[in-house]
Amino acid sequence: RSMATAGMLRTVAARPLRPLAAGAARRCAALHSVADLCDEYVGDGRALQRGEPRCKGAQVLPAAPPVQLRDFGGRRAFSGLIQTVACFESNPAVHAMLSEPGEGRVLVVDGGGSTRTALLGDMIAQMGADNGWAGVVIHGVCRDAPALAQINLGVKALGCHPCKSHKDDLGAPGVVLSFGGVTFRPGDWLAADEDGILVLPADAAPQGEGFRGGVGDDAGGDAEAWVLLVAAAPAGLSQAAWSGTENPIPTA
Fold it and tell me: What Rg value do the Cα atoms of the chain yield, rounded?
């Protein structure tokens, strides 16, 4: 079982993304929040309730009960392709996944909603940030909240618990997860900020740079977030020209 699980952890589920049409790409270049993305891909709340979002397969997890995730990381806004782990009160799979190259992905962890032990702390979170993960979404709890706020990683969780998890269960990586009325599939695309989470099928996801949140220059200050979405530029145009700014696009 251990060898099989290790092999699964090394497998990255990444579906090729369909290029956006020019008009859609231009619209995406102006979107700066999950609310903006929902206007573009979902429509109003009634369309979502009826299961008729503007983009087929779009799903929303609001920052509200019954599954209300709080922000703990230095990035308050982040996005990327989804990778998944299912584990219950045991985090070896979380550690193993975040030790792999993240390539801008978001790790979604289904801890069964347990608040009895933390599945992520500052050391594993820092490792994830160093390895290029954009964020971690946990249907469970984390710990080391003050330290997490200084790490350039998005972290959403139900809350905090000061005790670490046990290491007896290897968990299940790369599986389809469902909580809060939303299904998270490896290879789909996720965007998150203080308003909540938007999930899109991979073939409908915006291209290019996604949301990125950063820690403020003052290490002792509060974590600051900024949001940027730049669509894939048409051939012959630089990202700077396409996004309407002459400044280089930040990469951290």
Answer: 18
Pairing label, strands 189-193, 196-200: antiparallel
Please say whether the beta carbons of 160 and 84 come within 8 A. no
pLDDT digits (tens, 9 = 90+) for 138-148: 999 999 999 99
Q: Which pLDDT tens digit goes with each residue over 2-50?
A: 444 444 444 433 333 333 333 443 344 446 799 999 999 999 999 999 9
Q: Could you give the CA distance from residue 121 to residue 142 in angstroms, rounded to a whole number? A: 6
Name the one residue in this structure whose structure tokens are 């290490």: 219
Which strand (E) or helix (H) includes residue 107?
Answer: strand 106-110
Q: Is 6 helix (H, G, I), strand (E, B) or coil?
A: helix
Beta bridge partners of 135: 106, 154
CA 162 from centre of chain: 23
Judge whether 84 and 173 are in contact, CB under 8 Å.
Answer: yes
d(CA 53, CA 203): 15
Residues in the chain: 252
